[in-house]
Each structure stands twice: as structure tokens, then as C-alpha cells.
Protein 1
Amino acid sequence: MNRKLLFWMMLSFANTRLISAWTSRQRKNAAGLLCLAASLRTTTSHCAPTIPEEWLEYDHYNGVTISLNQSMNDFATALQNSLQQWKHEGRKGIWLQIPEAHAAHVGSAVAAGFRFHLVQQNTLILSAWLPSFDDPTAISRLPAGPTHQVGVGCLVFHPDDSSKMLVVQEKTGPAAAWSLWKMPTGLTDAGEDIHAAAERELKEETGLTAACRGILQFRQAHPTQLKDNSKRVYRTHSDLFFVCVLQLLEKEIVLEACPDEIAAIQWMSVEDYCRQERWQSSPVYQEMNRVIQEAQLSHMMQPYTLELGFGRGTNALYHSRPPQSQL
Amino acid sequence: MNRKLLFWMMLSFANTRLISAWTSRQRKNAAGLLCLAASLRTTTSHCAPTIPEEWLEYDHYNGVTISLNQSMNDFATALQNSLQQWKHEGRKGIWLQIPEAHAAHVGSAVAAGFRFHLVQQNTLILSAWLPSFDDPTAISRLPAGPTHQVGVGCLVFHPDDSSKMLVVQEKTGPAAAWSLWKMPTGLTDAGEDIHAAAERELKEETGLTAACRGILQFRQAHPTQLKDNSKRVYRTHSDLFFVCVLQLLEKEIVLEACPDEIAAIQWMSVEDYCRQERWQSSPVYQEMNRVIQEAQLSHMMQPYTLELGFGRGTNALYHSRPPQSQL
């Protein structure tokens, strides 16, 4: 595996800028030569159109990113010329960012050899692995896009009776059809930490303010189920589901079901929750329920938010060691 | 949050098929009426083109998925007509799947009001939230695409001396520039469990066969670093990095560095590993290194692979309770 982690990419950004500045100068020289070569060939002084330099950014994996932020009449020709030039220079991975406003250019990009890669911030990112243009067996080393959605379940034991847990019935979806009592659940928002998502979801669905004390367990699921009986390809990504234990911060507990999503809300004995018929046929849920019944703080990975240090911002870290201050 | 988990979507698929069969009949009646209305208006017998019924699949969230698997001359008109009809029927989320072969239609789709949503299996998935066509404040309830890549680090203690761990130096990337000794790392492949990815990566980078005994800790990182100083939008997804502890299954240990990726490989004292200069400025890495130094099996979440039961396939489950058989 030569695809390296996003983390390293982020750290390496400072380096990239230096290399960009250098390669940018080299590129201008190369563009001049191409222009000269073209004018010699055609005996006119008109240069073959290429992608404008100010749309480009170079990376230290020998790649180029094109940001298509305005329309261009001869985009298809310019793209093909630039690809030829980059192949000649020995470049490898080319990224092309097309925002929705310029979606009409997507066809030309695919015709030039680009593949759909991912969508982010309403922008379609295409990629071309230049070595595979001449050698179809050359495998792209460009990192794949994101593969997982991340969900949370909120496990809240009653502060005065830990044999009871908070459960909801949903208004729509399969759990509603089964009248299943379940933990409040939801997906993390973009850029949101797991423990923060659990606190937000609990607040949204039940009105309760709580602090996430730890992750009790988590489940990874891949959607093999859709493959052979559906025309649909969307939502075929994997799912990580974290069971978070939260401690209420309210002095007085008032349950307020979210009117859009939650049909009913109550405290239920953990035993009754686990005995629900729906779980009985599922080894995964039986095991998850056993872990819930035996839950203790010492079994959990607690969340810590720490400065990255050699880059901006913080990371969330989850582990089950006591904090150093308590040792 | 009304966006529900992938898991529920997969479970609900059987229901969807039943509803599809029913709505499909209703739709044919509706299409007939539209055709009749069109013929009355235009006083010709030619029907307004709509998206062919056999390209459609209905879901029980009141949505429609269009699979564009062949080219269509009047696609732009047909799409607009179908959208009008679905709006009239009170439908909400419309998905449109465009494979690379039909990339030329992407422009028409965006012009008709579709947004880029995600890319999967080399297919661009666009979406349109019909309620927002008339009311721009209506917020889409369609689930976002995947948000995270999942990486693993392989922590292998020497079988005869647990004060030593296996480390590598990489050939390329920032860690190489810093001459950093690090755990073998990599990204999970599509559909691959975390513990399986750790075993595969270790094998690929070092030649060693091992079994993943547990997850010691994990880190969640969001790429705030790229936002304000780069034109690039790609790779702005989040990262989950799991530190996996592996136990060697080899009788005789022979270290074989992967020639493409690994420059050097050795056993190193955990203390020396943690003392490397690069970590000193990073609170995140200092804490991760402390947890590595104190690693014990009881601190880990062990992997279990279990049948889902009420659906096909297995899930991976991670928790730190002893298996039931050992209680």
C-alpha cells in the first residue's frame, strides 16, 4: 500500500508549498518551450492552448491539481494539451476540480481520460493517473476518497437507577415499523468528533444535555446486502457505529421528544430493552446488548481532545487508560 | 437529525421492494395521465418525454433513483418533465446515477437542479431535493455521502522482548523526509474490516504474518489545516486512525521490507521510538506514545466477527469485555 494517510498529507502541506513555488518556475519555462515548439511546428506564432498556470497547484507526489473556477471555450483542447505536456514531464496523478457551475465541462474531462473520483464541498473531483495512459496495467496510487460514514448511539443510564436506560421510538424508517425501542442515534456532521456528535444527537432527539464519558463498543458494517439485488449504487459505503455512554448534566430531567423524528421516549429497564424480539435473531445485537448490560466506565475508551502541535488544530483521541493526572 | 443510518437502510431493503412494486403500478397510471394531458394540450398524440420507467427505482422515503445506463437524446427535457411530475406527486429526494460513459449528461442534470452528491463505483451520484425547488429554505434530508477514511497502524511487540516494537522507515512522503521510525500504516480497502486491514498492511510492508489482538486507541482528525491556504478542496474528508496490536504467528521471524514502500525495518526499543524528536512538539503523539508504552491487552477493544442475523453477512464488533465463554 503506497496510499498514505490524510494525516501525513496535511502535515506535509508546508513542504508542498515550497516545492510548488519551485516547480511553478520550472513549469513556466516548460510552457515557454512548448509554445516555441508549437510555433516552430505550425510556423505561426499562436500557442497551443493549455490550462492556465493560475488554475494549477503542484504537490510533492509529482502531481498537479486543476481548479476549474471559470468557464473556458477551448477547455477540451487545453486539457488534452496540458495532459500531454505533463505526461512528457513524467507527472503522475492529475486532479481536476469542477464546481457545479461548470458541470458542462465534465463530459470533456472524462473524454480526455479522467475518472470520477469523489465529491466534496459541492465540487466534483476527477482524477487521471498518467502512467496508465500508455500502460493500462499501471495501477493508480492516488488515495481513494472517504469510505465510511460514522454514526453514534447514545447510551444514557438513569442517574438514580442504572438498571434503566433512555430509549426512543422513531417516527419513520424500519425501526418505526418494528415499534423498536432504541438508543437515540444519528450520523456525525462534517468535521464533528464522535463524542460531540453523541452529545448533539441526544440534545436534538430528547432535549437532554449530557457529557459523553466514553465509547463502550463500536461496530463496522459493509453493505454487501445491496449488491446483487438492486440497480442502486449509492450508499454503498461502509458504516462505523459507536455506542457512546453519556452522563446527564441536567439537575431536573425533562424528556422532550423531537417532534419531527421521535414518536415516543421513556426510561426502560436494560433487561427489557435487550429482550426485544427484534434482537433475538441477531448475533451482532445480542453481543452488543450483552456489552451494554455489563457496561462499566473501565471498559470504555474515553475521549480526549489534544493539540496536534506540529500543525494547526486538535485531534480527538480515544483510549481506556486513566488520564496521566490520575495515575 | 432525520438522516438515518446506512444500517437501517440496508435492513429496510426488503420493504422497499414491496413498496416499489406498488408505486410502480401507480406511476404507470400517472404517466398515462400525463401523456393524456400532454396530448390534450398539444392536440397531438405525441407524449412529453419523461425518464423511462425501467430506469427508475422507488424507495420508501418517498424518493426515486434514476439509473442512467444508456444515452438519451432528449434527456434534458425528459428529466425536467419527470421532475415536474414527481414534484406534483409530492416526491422528495431524487437520486441520479451517471456512469462515466454518460458523463456528457452531467451538465443537463445540474442545469435541471441536481447537485453533486458523491462518487461510488465510478458512478457520479447527483441528488435533487424537490421541496427546495419551490422553497429555497427547505433543507435536504438526504443522507450525506461517506465522510471518513479509515487507517490502521500496526503495533507489534517483539515476542521475546516486549520492550521492543517493530518499526519502519518509509521511502516517500513526509515521514521519509523526517527519517521517522514509525509503525507500519495504511488505509483500509473497500469493504475491509479494521483488524483485517492491520493484518494485511503488516504482511505487505514487512512480510510478517500476525493476528490482530485488539485496538489500543484511535484518533479522529478533521482537515481544518487545508481550508484557508489552498485552492484544493479534495481530500478534505476526515480521518480515523486505529492503533492495532498484532501478535506474530511466525515461528521464525524474517523481516522483509516491501521494496516499493519501505526503506528500512527493525526492532526498536519502545522508549527510543517514543523519544523521537518529531513527536516532542505534539500533545496528540505524546499521549498516543504514553498509551503505547503502557499497552496491555486488558486496555484494548478486541475484534469479533458476528452474523448480522436478520440480514445477510457479518459485522465486525469491537469491545473490551472478555468473551462470554471466558466469564
Note: The first helix of chain A runs from residue 6 to 11.
Protein 2
Amino acid sequence: MACIKISNLTKEYGKHRVLDNVSLTIEENKIYGLLGRNGAGKTTLLNLITNRIFQTEGTITIDDENVVENGAALEKIYFMTELDLYPEGMKVKDLFKWTKEFYSNFDTDYAMKLSKKFGININKKFKELSTGYSSICKIIITLASGAEILIFDEPVLGLDANHRDMFYKELVANYIDEPKTIILSTHIIEEVSEILEKVIIIKDGKLLGDKEVESLLGGAYLVSGSSENVGKYIANKKCINIETIAGFKEATIIGELSEEDNNQIKELGLETSKVELQKLFIHLTGEEEVK
Amino acid sequence: MACIKISNLTKEYGKHRVLDNVSLTIEENKIYGLLGRNGAGKTTLLNLITNRIFQTEGTITIDDENVVENGAALEKIYFMTELDLYPEGMKVKDLFKWTKEFYSNFDTDYAMKLSKKFGININKKFKELSTGYSSICKIIITLASGAEILIFDEPVLGLDANHRDMFYKELVANYIDEPKTIILSTHIIEEVSEILEKVIIIKDGKLLGDKEVESLLGGAYLVSGSSENVGKYIANKKCINIETIAGFKEATIIGELSEEDNNQIKELGLETSKVELQKLFIHLTGEEEVK
């Protein structure tokens, strides 16, 4: 089991409230996307879960045990951060040995296999790796850690499209081989939308949503066609975005498509389609007002 | 006019050939994607075009003038690099003034307008900006530079999805307002596929392709359906990728769909669809062999 419960979590730095009364449960053996704009509070939340910083208010438990200064609970998690916290001067292969001292289930054979697959030179010093290979090194250590909960913070920074594709496939293979709780915090949302089961969306330190991807996407749709008829259709709808090109409009509507909607759309000669996760995210977390 | 001609360009570092006999013409007033894996030679090519390094062999001209130590030719280009080459300690607003000294057409009003739009604090020192805001600052300076050729090297590094979306929209608006030659080197390919007119693909220092996006995508297609029938169909085709899930296969085929192909696909109960640019890129530049 590896379930994280967060209750009324608040974190303040002086007068600045970075996280504001967040409550949510991260269920075991699911793949979560943690989504939010830069500065929304995602990394703060992950640092609190892993007890790298202390909350101002609220509690976090892993399998009902409080995480604060609780080594046994924290050993269940491996957290791949954006920061490099490894000892100075270590080579990639030394980092594997070093990690195994803290994570006894670390799978060195698997780490070596992944190193070959991703083409990383294990005799190179970590600090001398490019942005892309530094991310790859951290990805490999996280995947091989043997922890029950894997947290990735911006894992694909600097990775080319081929390496990103390999990472997503490896992550899914790893999960299928041994189901675990996975939290992916990333800005490259559309690429991972098919991997994620649930998403947690944070906006300005507040929890905006904690939903199955399917249900989130099912709660919105696109309507497109002539500006005039799209205008008629959206008059009484909750419309969160409109794109206009010449006499053509595409509107993003929040709500489920009823039979009545479908009839009206047909009558007006409009078309409907699905919203992409990344586009929905942009609209939900954007500042722009829709007229 | 702003046309770049590259002839038989080679760059070696000792025995390592980073670029190998590349010839291509970058036509004026088009939006190019420069695509390649990490280490393929993209940044080397851009550094050569902007005369930051010297070639081993070959020539580069801008509007028929050789770029080597040619200030007048080089002033036509603004190059947004991954590296930070700005003077130490400068605030964002000071960088605007500093850039105007070298680029007399720099549009300060536009830079200020963009700063507000992207939410960047112009009184902050450049070195103190986060990865995302550092990218935004460089994007703003490039867009406002007034140069005839804008080159962006990994412009969206660290940007959240909302800021990436704003950048793409602003780039298109800028281009429509005043057409210019734009080169975008990026790993986040799928998001820009609709913006690009042409793509240049580099693999291991060699030019792999220089094509209209439409013609590149038109030269490949996906075929999917039962493993057995997909297997039958691809027997005599050039297949560059196969994905298998249970009894289902999806194959990426290089070639154009003929009438005969369409008939065979229909008979076998298969379906065809378009290839995404990023997926095609991954297959074209990948190392994996297809069986």
C-alpha cells in the first residue's frame, strides 16, 4: 500500500501564502499528473509531501503515518527533483551505488540496462552532463529506486522528442511490471495525457481540481462553425475560450453534451469535438477573460 | 530580402565532425523548424550562420554576402540562444536599452507591451530570473529586435503551457504584421507543427531533410487494424515503425497512398490516418530497427 493523504495543507513564506488549505488523497497504484502554472505551488506541495520543508498548517500522511521526520514513511518515496542534490564530483555509476545505500531495493541491473538504452555514459561526472542527460540520469535513478511512490518534477526538461518518448514508454512498462503510485509534474501536458489516470490541478496555491482525466475531459467540449451560429449556440453556455479565424469560430464549453445540445448543434450546422487536456488546462488556469 | 544560403558546410572539432557537408537555402519570409536530436548539430549550425564560430569548410551567405566577419550582414539577424550572453548585473529594462544600441530598429514600446502581457518584472535582474522567465525575457528581446531574420534556439525551455501558447500566438501575430524569416529550433515539435511552413531535419551532422511540412507529412501515413492484416499489408511497404497492443497493430509507412493502396486497405478492413510531425521525426531520427 502507498496512499498519501493531505489535509488542510497550508504553507506560508512570511506573508506570502504559497499553498492554501489543500486537501486531497493520492490513491495507491495510480498514475497522477500534477499540473499547474509556474509558481502555482506544485514543487512546494511535493517538497512538503517528502518533508523537505515544513508546512505552516495541516497534515500529510503516507499509509496513515505522519510524514514529519518519519524516515520509515519517507523511504517509501523516491522524489526526482529539478534541483541537483547529489554529492559533488560523483560519476553516474557512483550515484547508483550511493542511492542503493538509502534505497535497499534499488535495482542496479535495471539502472545499467536503462543507461545503455538511453545512451548515457555512466563514467561521466553528473555535474558535467548536459541538461538533457542530467534529466535522464535522474529519471533512471528514480525508475530503478524500487520505491512504492515515484515522484517526477519536470522529468523531461531538455530531453529531445525521442528520449521523451522512450521515457513515457519505460514509465508505463515499469508500472505494468510492478504497479506503484506515480506523480508526474510536467509542463509538457499533451504528451502524457494518455498515460495519466488522474490529474491534480493547482492554481495560485489552491486546489482547482482532482479528477479522473476521462471525467475532466468529458466535462468539456469544442463547438466550431460559422461565427454567427457559434455565437447563437454559446449564448446560454459557460464558454471558457473562443478562437476566431475570419468568419469561423471555435468555442470551448464547460458542461456535458445533452441530447438537446446535440440537436441544436445539428440544426445550426456546427461541429463538436473533444478538448485536448493541455488546451483545457490552459483555459482553466489562464487569466484571460472571455467575452 | 533576407535569404540564407549554406553551401557544403562542414565543422570539425579535432577529429569529431559535428556538421558534415550541409547545403541548403533558407528562403525569405518563411517560418522554418530546425529539428534534430540533442547533439545532432543544430546549435552548431546556428552558431555558424551567426558567425559566432568559424566553419572548417563551406560558405554561408545572407542575401549573397558572406557572413564571416561581416557586421552589415549579421545585423539582419537576431539570435536567441540557450546561453546567456548578457552583461552581468543588468536588469530586464536595461537589456532593452542595451539591445537598442546594437539593433537600431529595436521596438522598445513593443518590448514593454510584451513584458506586461507575459507578466515579467522588468526591474528584476536578468540573472535572478527563473528558467521560464529567463526564456521569456529572451523571447521578448528577439521579437522586438526589428531584425529581418529571427532565430530561436529552444525558446520554450521552462515555459508553462500557457506561456508557450502565448509565445506561439505572438510569434504568428508578429509574422503576420511584418513577414520575416524565422527559424525555430525546438524539441517540443508537435505544438509548433501548425506554425511551421518548412522543416530542416539534421541527423548526426548530416542534412536528412529540407521540406515543406505538408509535403513531409504527405509522404507518410499510418495503417492500423488487426495484427494479421496489417502484417499482410506492410509486406511490400517501407515501414518505419510498428506499435502493437494485444491483437492490434499500427504501422507507420513511408510513401504516398495510391488508389491500389486504398483498395487493399479497404479489403483488409484496415484504417489509415495522418502521421503527427513529432512522431514522424522520432521515427526518422531514431536508432531502432523495425522488424
Note: Chain A touches chain B at residues 36-38, 130, 132-133, 157-165, 187-191, 278, 281-282, 285-286 (CB under 8 Å).
